User: Fold this.
Amino acid sequence: MSAVPIDESMLELADAIQHRLSIQYSSTEYEYLKPSPSDVSADSHQILPHRSTDAPLSAAINPLQLTLIEKYVDVMPSSLKTLCNTARPINALPLEILAHIFSMLAGPLSSGLAPTPAFPPSLDTHPLPSDLLQASHVCRLWRAVALAFPALWATLDTAQPRFVAPRLARARAAPLRVVLRDRTSHARTVPTLDDPHLRALVAEEGARIEQLHIEPRFSYGPALLAAFRHPARVLRALTVRNANAPGECELPQMFAGCTPRLERLVVSGFTSWPGNTFANLRRVCLDDQVESSRPSLSSFLEFLALSPRLEELILVNAGPTDNASSVGLAFREGRALVSLPALRALELGEWPNTRNIGQLLSCLSLPATTTINIWAASLAQHQQLEALLPKDTTHLGPLRGLHKMTLMPRTAADTKEVLSVRDGALHLLGDICAASVLPVLFDRLDVRALRALAVAQGPRHAHGLSQRMWRALLPRAPRLASLATPSDSSAALIALYREDEDTGGDAREGPALCPALSALSVTDDRECTALLLILLAGRRAELGRPIARVRVDGPPDAMDGFVRQALRESVAVVEYKQGEPALEREQLAHWPSEAYCWAESRQRL
Assistant:
C-alpha cells in the first residue's frame, strides 16, 4: 500500500483519541494501554473492546471518522519510514556523490564514476562484486539513483551468471566492462563459463565493450575467444589468459583484428598473436610464456615500435628469446634502438637468464624518468650483472647520472634478488659479494655524478673490498659526499687516509680522494677503526674539507671517551648506534612494486 501524507486532520484525530483515552482511564491505565508507534494499528483494536461499553470512547467521533483513523493508522508506519529516510544525512548528498558510492558496489572494474584500477588487474582472485540490486531495494530514492545511472550496471561478471542479463538490460547503451571467468571459492571452482548461451549473450555486445578480461580457470578451446568476431572500436583494455594446453600458445584472431582504441593489454600464456594488430598501446603486460615458443628479439622490438607512447612495460617470465644473431640483425638494419620516450616503468621478472635482459636493454632508448625493476631468484653475482648491464648505457636514461648507489644484503623475508633504479638511485638487493659486484657496477655505469654510496655484503662473504680496490674505484666518483660501509669499514678508511698522505695534498688543493666527502657511516669492527677515524677526520680538517657527520655502528662499549672527544674536535656531528650494523631499509621504500606483488599472487593460484 502506498504511503498517505500525514495532514492536519490526521493529527487532530490522533490528538482527540489520546485526549479521550486520558479522560476515560486513570493515568496508570492509560500509560499501560497506550500503544507504541510500531504496533498502534494492532493493539488499538485488541485493547479497547475489553473495556466497558458504558463509557463510549467519544460521542464526537462517528464511524466514518473511525474508518478514516483506521486507514491512517494502517499507513502510518510506511509514512513514518518515508519521513525518516528522507531525513537521513546520506539523502542530503548530491545524487552524483551517491552514485559514486554505489559504483563501489558495482564490481572491481572502473567506470566513469570510479577511480582507475591498478595495472595489471587482479580479477581472477577478486571477490564476487557486491550485488547492486540490494542497494536498489533499500528505498525509493536509492532505487531511483541506481536506475538513473546506467554505468553502474555496465559491469558484467560471469562469476555471477544469473545477474548478467538483468545488468545488461539496465546498462542500456552504456559502454560495457566484462569479466569472463569461472567462479572461484575456498571450497571449489565452478565452471560458469561452460554455458554457450551466456558466452553468446556477451559476445553479441562486442561493439559496446570498453574493457574485456578473459581469465578462465578451465580450458574451453578456441571458441571462447573466437566468439568475439566483430570489430571492437571502443575497446580500451583487454586481458586474455591462456588456460589451454601448454603447446597451444597462439592467440586466435579477435575482433577481426580491429581494436583502434586499445590502450591496456595483458596477455598471459600466449607467445604470438597473428591476425591481431596491437598498436598505440599505453600499458603492456606479458606473463607466463613458454620459453621454447617465445618471439625473437627482432620481432619483439617490432611489436614495441608500434607503441611509441608506451608508458608501462611488464614482462614476467616472458619476453624475447636468447638470439644473438637477431641483435646483430637489428643493428645492421638500423633498428637497434627502439625509443620509448613516455615509458614510466619497466618491470622485468623471472627471466631464464640475465643475458636476455641485457640484449633487450641494449636495444631500448629510455628517458631518465623511467623506473626499472628487475627481479629473479639469483641476480646479484658479478657474472649475472655483467650479462645484464650493457657495455654502453648512454641510451638508458635511468642509468645515466646516478647520484645514489646502495648494495644491500637480503634478509630471510626476501625471496628474490632485486635491481631497482628510480629517480637517479640504484639499489641492489641480494647475496652480495662487494669485492666482485661493485667493480662491475663502476665499470658499466656512469658514476661521475654519484654523491652517496652505501656498500654492505651478505653474511656468507667474509672479505669485502680491499683498500687497493677502494683506491681504484673511488676516484671514479669525484662528487661523492656520503660513504656508508657497514661491513669491513677499515679498508675504506685506510684508502681515504693513505691517498691523502701519499699524494701530499695541501690546503689549497684539498683531499686527493673524494674531496666533497662530508658524511661517513662505518662499523667499529677492528681495533684500528677508532684510530683511522681520528687520523682521517683530522687530516680532512687540516686540508680545509672537514667531515661534517660521522656515524659509528658497534657494540655498547664501542670507542671510549677519549676517542669520542678526539673525533668531536674535527667532526661537527658524531653518532653512535649500538647493535648490528645495517643499512636503513627505508631506502628501498618503493619496493616491492605493484607488478611484483601481482606476479607473486599469480604464482600462488
